[in-house]
Structure of VOC family protein:
Amino acid sequence: MSDAPASAGPSGGTPARHAPGTPCWVSLMVHGLAATEEFYGALFGWEFQPGPQQLGPYVRALLDGHEVAGIGQLPPDRHLPIAWTPYFASRNADLTAETVRSCGGTIGVGPLDAADAGRLAIGSDPSGAVFGVWQPAAHLGTAVSDVAGTPAWNELLTFESATVAKFYRTVFGYEEEPVVSADFDYVTLQLGGRPVAGVHGMGQSLPRDRGPHWVTYFQVDDVGDALDHLVHLGGTVLKPVRDTPQGRVAAVADPEGARFALLQRPD
């Protein structure tokens, strides 16, 4: 998002979430599952129920009974970056994983079945940013959108947009809409003319301690109130509120350091 023009961000409507290539789910792997549930439950009003346990303890977050996200627990010996990971819908996770590999990406987990929920793979693009692939069965993905507490947008922060956008276009069939600007490197990924995700090339401004990574934006009713709440709960404000054509945005992190963003849409 990052001050991109209106075409380079969420449209404000309800996307066709389960069309192939559409971001359909977000998940987070943490060390302290109970503490993380408490944090996000208080911040977004989520409740939790157990999910498939193939990758260890795992819960699904619910908002008014609708599934919105997943949170799992890392094994104690796994010291991976704590990060929200977007999953992109696929009709065939095995074929998508093959395409990821053939285009210079890697597959680190799967493809494997998550009980009867579906089939998943977790990989990384050629720049190293981690993402997931979801072939739905019983579990279609995020079941509600465009209300507070739901994922609103996913944006890749990377060194430069052109090469990595080509990778995602080849894997998921996106159309690209670049921002025409000498000093702003941004590409919107679209399906059927609808924006579904963004790629922001940051050059040397990319955080050196993190490298290329996806950021999930969660919708809130009032970003100022949400920031106060987040800090009270032990979270961190990484970038203060700023106004964009899509609304008011702030970059934040949870108590374990997982980065995400808060989005208050325009009235």
Observations:
- The chain is about 15% helix and 40% strand.
- Residues 23-136 form a domain with the 2,3-Dihydroxybiphenyl 1,2-Dioxygenase; domain 1 fold (CATH 3.10.180.10).
